[in-house]
Amino acid sequence: MKEMSIHRILTGSNFIRDSVTQEQFENLVGKNEDPQQTESILRSILPSNLHASLQARLNSSFTSSNPLKNVASPLTSIGRLTTNSVDYPQGYPRKGLKSVLNAVLYSLPTTVGIKTECEVKRILVEDGRVVGVEADEMYYADMVIYTGFAKDLPSVIDDLPEAYVDDLDGIARTRSLTIWLGLDERLREFNYIGSEVWFKDNPYWAMPISNYDSSLAPEDKQLVGFAFVIDEKKSEKLETKKAYETIYRAIPNIEEHVVMQHKQITIPEKAAVTIDGKFADIRTPIKNLYLAGTDTDSRSMGITRAAYSIVEMLGILNEDGNLHQ
């Protein structure tokens, strides 16, 4: 288990600057016995005629935040602070996160099968080694990668050491509320690409998503998201009401422009950033059972943190001789 550091809390938003280069990635996942012949993961699983088009598709999936307008009004009150307004640490995929999923699915070879709506009930272990999973039927395998909540791993497997279970229980999770507002016009207050925080009594993190990709809102309209942390001791209804009141207080003229509203209550990160919070290791006490996801890597946030965890997992699989088989 890894404990959260103050450094992560202070620098976690600079995720683009803490990236992995292609050369670093190749060194991480290349076959150890013959590094001169190393191929990338994508090249090793894709037909040669698909690789170029996939790379082009991935490159086109993200919109740059460089061609920006300056912020019209950086501070509309002492409590509303615009951050990363004309900088590069933030991005948003064109056509939404579904475009990233589509690119991943496109990259998979025809030999890959995907089963949906198939809940894993048990992870099967024999003599300290994973042998498969039980779902709608038994699926036997030499290796299993678990991407659910690491904290919930003991609910699907019995053969875990007590100390390890206690460590997993130390992973903190936080629910969040996201309010999506569709506006009848593009407001001057959101005339930027980036994000802002309201840091008074009920803090939020807001981002005008349609400024990154105009297709996410009708022509001349605007889509803005506001993310809040939910107080676990209060009802969702009360927390939602308080969120709307905060938005309308922070941006007084926005309410008259709202033509669409939607709320989402989720656990955005499988491990929350706290002073003494813990993150799970990718390796588990069960041989060839690995973990992946946002509760195994403390860098960055969201899909970027998830991607970091996969890069780390590939390196560990390579070290264990389970990547190139």
UniProtKB/TrEMBL annotation:
It comes from the Archaea. PANTHER family: PHYTOENE DESATURASE (PTHR43734:SF1). This is Amine oxidase domain-containing protein. The lineage of its organism: Archaea, Methanobacteriati, Methanobacteriota, Stenosarchaea group, Methanomicrobia.
